[in-house]
Design brief:
The protein is an alpha/beta fold. It contains eleven helices and eight strands. It has an eight-stranded parallel β-barrel with strand order 1-2-3-4-5-6-7-8, surrounded by six helices. The protein binds phosphoenolpyruvate (PEP).
């Protein structure tokens, strides 16, 4: 068993309201109490609710953290609709996602834009969860490793060795996100081992061994333990199931070292 601390993120996507984001945050704190010391638990609410969720977390004895689902790489200025690293920090967040598949494939973000966001996030001192993963067409064409390698190398271009302490990689096969289809534990493990090997090549063995690589794609209470039991799977990025307190808490529990 590795000594990497498991990381479980709840990506609420474009869901919840002022009221339901607050009740979800309260529910997560209560339900995840026992796992808080042994798992890094981070919730990623929609940007308008970050302050409200953070103030709920601050009012409770909890180590659950907040993160932004996305941010822009420029510091400030005429970028209508975007939010900066400083704004995210100002809302009390310590984490941000970069390159989520919905940003890449629905909004159309390039590998280079994702890299600019990764670098801005790390320069701002936040933990960056870099999301990578292949589409179904790419998998069927035998391009899984090539796509993951391209997204990893470009996403982490010009990231320094020391900055890797604040990087978490989320392997999320696009065909498994929000579809109910999950990669088998063996397929997910193979992709994670490949990614860890690349990190060793790009940085060092030590960095590769230290970096958390988490899995995302229809993780549920029923499949979490088998996925997290794989040697190179260090937790998960959870979409749909993070909106249900009991499901999210069960997944967090499955990630805790036994
Ligand atoms: C995600 O949002 O990153 C995700 C993995 O979603 P889901 O768990 O719903 O597949």
């Amino acid at each position: 068993m590795s000594d990497r601390k498991p990381y479980v993120g709840g990506n609420w996507k474009m869901n919840t309201s002022v009221d339901t984001s607050s009740s979800l945050a309260r529910g997560v704190v209560d339900a995840c109490e026992s796992a808080q010391g042994s798992v890094d638990i981070v919730v990623f609410p929609p940007a308008p609710y970050l302050i409200g969720v953070k103030s709920i977390l601050r009012s409770r004895p909890t180590s659950i953290a907040t993160g932004a689902q996305d941010l822009y790489f420029e510091a400030d200025g005429a970028f209508t609709g975007e939010i900066s690293v400083a704004m995210v920090k100002d809302c009390g967040c310590g984490h941000a996602l970069a390159g989520h598949s919905e940003r890449r494939h629905v909004i159309g973000e390039s590998d280079e834009l994702v890299n600019a966001k990764v670098r801005a996030t790390l320069e701002g001192g936040l933990t960056c969860v870099l999301c990578i993963g292949e589409t179904l067409e790419e998998r069927e064409a035998g391009e899984t490793n090539a796509v993951n390698e391209r997204q990893l190398r470009t996403g982490l271009a010009d990231v320094g060795l020391r900055q890797m302490d604040k990087v978490v990689i989320a392997y999320e096969p696009v065909w498994a996100i929000g579809t109910g289809k999950t990669a088998s534990p063996e397929d997910a493990q193979a992709a994670h081992a490949f990614i860890r090997g690349l990190l060793a090549e790009m940085f060092s063995d030590e960095v590769a061994q230290r970096t958390r690589i988490i899995y995302g794609g229809s993780v549920k209470p029923s499949n979490a333990a088998a996925l997290f039991g794989q040697p190179d799977i260090d937790g998960g990025l959870i979409g749909g199931a993070s909106l249900k307190v009991e499901d999210f808490a069960a997944i967090v529990k499955a990630a805790a070292p036994h």
